[in-house]
Amino acid sequence: MPRKVRTHIAGAEELRSFPLAPKSLTKQEFGKRLYRLMLAKGWHQSELARQAGVPRDAVSVYIRGKSLPTPVNLQKLADAIGLPTEELLPNHAEGAIDEDELPAFEMKVSSGAPNMAWVRVNRLVSTQTAVKIAELLDNDDALDRNRSGKEAALLAK
Hints:
Layout: H1 12-16, H2 27-40, H3 45-52, H4 56-63, H5 71-81, H6 85-88, E1 105-109, E2 117-121, H7 127-139, H8 142-156
Antiparallel strand pairs: 1-2
GO molecular function: DNA binding
Domain HTH cro/C1-type: 34-88
Protein name: HTH cro/C1-type domain-containing protein
Protein backbone atom coordinates (compact mmCIF):
# COMPACT_ATOMS: atom_id res chain seq x y z
CA MET A 1 0.00 0.00 0.00
CA PRO A 2 1.56 3.36 -0.98
CA ARG A 3 2.34 5.83 1.76
CA LYS A 4 0.30 9.01 1.89
CA VAL A 5 2.27 12.22 2.07
CA ARG A 6 0.95 15.11 4.10
CA THR A 7 0.64 17.98 1.68
CA HIS A 8 0.50 20.68 4.32
CA ILE A 9 4.13 20.10 5.23
CA ALA A 10 6.66 22.47 3.70
CA GLY A 11 8.64 20.65 1.04
CA ALA A 12 5.98 17.96 0.54
CA GLU A 13 6.75 17.87 -3.19
CA GLU A 14 10.28 16.75 -2.34
CA LEU A 15 8.87 13.99 -0.14
CA ARG A 16 6.85 12.55 -3.01
CA SER A 17 9.94 12.11 -5.16
CA PHE A 18 12.13 10.94 -2.28
CA PRO A 19 13.41 7.42 -3.05
CA LEU A 20 12.68 4.85 -0.36
CA ALA A 21 15.60 2.51 -0.92
CA PRO A 22 18.76 4.00 -2.40
CA LYS A 23 21.78 1.70 -2.70
CA SER A 24 23.94 3.48 -0.14
CA LEU A 25 23.90 6.66 1.91
CA THR A 26 26.56 8.94 3.30
CA LYS A 27 26.16 10.30 6.82
CA GLN A 28 24.93 13.57 5.36
CA GLU A 29 22.41 11.85 3.07
CA PHE A 30 21.15 9.73 5.95
CA GLY A 31 20.67 12.90 8.02
CA LYS A 32 18.63 14.55 5.25
CA ARG A 33 16.61 11.38 4.79
CA LEU A 34 15.86 11.04 8.50
CA TYR A 35 14.88 14.72 8.65
CA ARG A 36 12.44 14.38 5.73
CA LEU A 37 10.89 11.23 7.16
CA MET A 38 10.54 12.95 10.54
CA LEU A 39 8.79 15.91 8.89
CA ALA A 40 6.53 13.56 6.96
CA LYS A 41 5.32 12.26 10.33
CA GLY A 42 4.76 15.84 11.47
CA TRP A 43 7.36 15.45 14.21
CA HIS A 44 10.18 17.57 15.57
CA GLN A 45 13.47 16.07 16.76
CA SER A 46 12.18 15.81 20.33
CA GLU A 47 9.13 13.81 19.23
CA LEU A 48 11.21 11.48 17.06
CA ALA A 49 13.53 10.91 20.02
CA ARG A 50 10.56 10.15 22.31
CA GLN A 51 8.89 7.83 19.80
CA ALA A 52 12.15 5.97 19.15
CA GLY A 53 13.36 5.94 22.75
CA VAL A 54 16.73 7.49 21.89
CA PRO A 55 18.35 10.64 23.29
CA ARG A 56 17.36 13.86 21.54
CA ASP A 57 21.04 14.77 21.17
CA ALA A 58 21.58 11.54 19.22
CA VAL A 59 18.75 12.44 16.82
CA SER A 60 20.33 15.87 16.34
CA VAL A 61 23.72 14.31 15.55
CA TYR A 62 22.15 11.97 12.97
CA ILE A 63 20.13 14.74 11.30
CA ARG A 64 23.18 17.01 11.06
CA GLY A 65 25.02 14.19 9.28
CA LYS A 66 27.75 13.93 11.89
CA SER A 67 27.25 10.25 12.71
CA LEU A 68 25.28 7.16 11.84
CA PRO A 69 23.14 5.40 14.44
CA THR A 70 24.28 2.26 16.19
CA PRO A 71 22.46 -0.90 15.07
CA VAL A 72 20.27 -0.68 18.20
CA ASN A 73 19.35 2.98 17.61
CA LEU A 74 18.82 2.33 13.90
CA GLN A 75 16.27 -0.35 14.79
CA LYS A 76 14.53 2.01 17.23
CA LEU A 77 14.39 4.82 14.65
CA ALA A 78 13.13 2.47 11.94
CA ASP A 79 10.40 1.13 14.25
CA ALA A 80 9.31 4.66 15.18
CA ILE A 81 9.17 5.79 11.55
CA GLY A 82 7.60 2.56 10.37
CA LEU A 83 10.26 1.39 7.93
CA PRO A 84 12.48 -1.69 7.88
CA THR A 85 16.08 -0.87 8.87
CA GLU A 86 17.36 -1.81 5.41
CA GLU A 87 15.10 0.85 3.87
CA LEU A 88 16.04 3.50 6.41
CA LEU A 89 19.78 2.86 6.02
CA PRO A 90 20.55 0.32 3.27
CA ASN A 91 24.32 0.41 3.67
CA HIS A 92 24.49 0.12 7.46
CA ALA A 93 26.36 -3.17 7.27
CA GLU A 94 29.09 -1.66 5.10
CA GLY A 95 29.34 1.57 7.07
CA ALA A 96 28.79 4.96 5.53
CA ILE A 97 31.07 6.60 3.06
CA ASP A 98 32.03 9.98 4.38
CA GLU A 99 32.03 12.17 1.29
CA ASP A 100 33.95 14.93 3.08
CA GLU A 101 36.97 12.73 3.85
CA LEU A 102 37.85 11.01 0.58
CA PRO A 103 36.77 11.59 -3.00
CA ALA A 104 35.27 8.66 -4.94
CA PHE A 105 38.25 8.71 -7.33
CA GLU A 106 41.60 10.40 -6.96
CA MET A 107 44.61 10.44 -9.28
CA LYS A 108 47.98 12.09 -8.61
CA VAL A 109 50.69 12.13 -11.25
CA SER A 110 54.06 11.15 -9.80
CA SER A 111 56.47 14.08 -9.68
CA GLY A 112 59.44 11.75 -10.22
CA ALA A 113 57.88 9.89 -13.13
CA PRO A 114 55.32 11.90 -15.13
CA ASN A 115 54.19 8.73 -16.94
CA MET A 116 53.14 7.19 -13.59
CA ALA A 117 50.22 8.06 -11.31
CA TRP A 118 48.89 7.11 -7.89
CA VAL A 119 45.24 6.08 -8.00
CA ARG A 120 42.78 5.80 -5.12
CA VAL A 121 39.21 4.50 -5.47
CA ASN A 122 36.83 5.03 -2.54
CA ARG A 123 33.58 3.76 -3.95
CA LEU A 124 31.29 0.80 -3.47
CA VAL A 125 31.38 -1.26 -6.68
CA SER A 126 30.19 -4.69 -7.73
CA THR A 127 32.52 -7.62 -7.11
CA GLN A 128 32.83 -8.02 -10.88
CA THR A 129 34.08 -4.44 -11.26
CA ALA A 130 36.47 -4.85 -8.31
CA VAL A 131 37.97 -7.96 -9.93
CA LYS A 132 38.41 -6.10 -13.23
CA ILE A 133 40.20 -3.26 -11.42
CA ALA A 134 42.44 -5.75 -9.63
CA GLU A 135 43.27 -7.45 -12.96
CA LEU A 136 44.11 -4.12 -14.58
CA LEU A 137 46.41 -3.25 -11.70
CA ASP A 138 48.01 -6.69 -11.73
CA ASN A 139 48.63 -6.52 -15.49
CA ASP A 140 49.99 -2.96 -15.43
CA ASP A 141 53.72 -3.40 -15.83
CA ALA A 142 54.40 0.35 -15.97
CA LEU A 143 56.11 0.20 -12.57
CA ASP A 144 58.49 -2.49 -13.82
CA ARG A 145 59.18 -0.50 -17.01
CA ASN A 146 59.82 2.65 -14.96
CA ARG A 147 62.24 0.82 -12.64
CA SER A 148 64.07 -0.71 -15.61
CA GLY A 149 64.45 2.73 -17.17
CA LYS A 150 65.91 4.21 -13.97
CA GLU A 151 68.28 1.25 -13.54
CA ALA A 152 69.43 1.61 -17.15
CA ALA A 153 69.99 5.34 -16.60
CA LEU A 154 72.05 4.65 -13.47
CA LEU A 155 74.16 2.03 -15.26
CA ALA A 156 74.80 4.44 -18.14
CA LYS A 157 76.34 7.01 -15.76
